[in-house]
Design a protein that fits this description.
The protein has 4 helices and 6 strands; from the N terminus they run H-E-E-E-E-H-E-E-H-H. By secondary structure, the protein is of the alpha+beta class. The two termini are about 15 Å apart.
């Protein structure tokens, strides 16, 4: 079981990751978001920032669908995210190890190529 503190710890351990000011958590690398709190929108109600759910960048529609179909207890989406390479992750259902993998993969997909080149292959190990 993971929580917002685990997201923060894992994200900030990544090179050049920064947290921007938000009501929950919101992490960027090279100016691009890779994981943030889910801004839940319900008709007729104000937006609610959910720190028990993380929005995670997954790269493409194929990966998104694989996660949604393969692990429906962990991942979900909403119509507002149709066509976007993002999934929502239920933090209470995910292990810290799996969260680390997801956050690191999202960071890699959003990090500038020059940063990745500087780090070299296989140099990121979080836990």
């Amino acid at each position: 079981m993971a929580d917002a503190d685990d997201v923060r710890r894992l994200a900030l351990a990544l090179p050049q990751a920064v947290e921007i000011d938000s009501e929950g958590f919101d992490f960027r690398v090279g100016g691009k978001g890779f994981v943030w709190s889910y801004p839940e929108r319900s008709p007729g109600k104000p937006r609610q920032i959910r720190t028990d759910v993380a929005v995670v960048f997954v790269g493409d529609e194929a990966e998104k669908q694989a996660l949604l179909l393969g692990e429906p207890d962990l991942f979900f989406t909403t119509p507002g995210y149709d066509g976007l390479p993002l999934v929502m992750l239920r933090l209470a259902e995910v292990s810290v190890d799996r969260l680390s993998e997801l956050v690191t993969d999202a960071w890699r997909m959003r990090a500038p190529q020059a940063l990745l080149d500087d780090l070299g292959e296989g140099s990121l190990r979080l836990g």
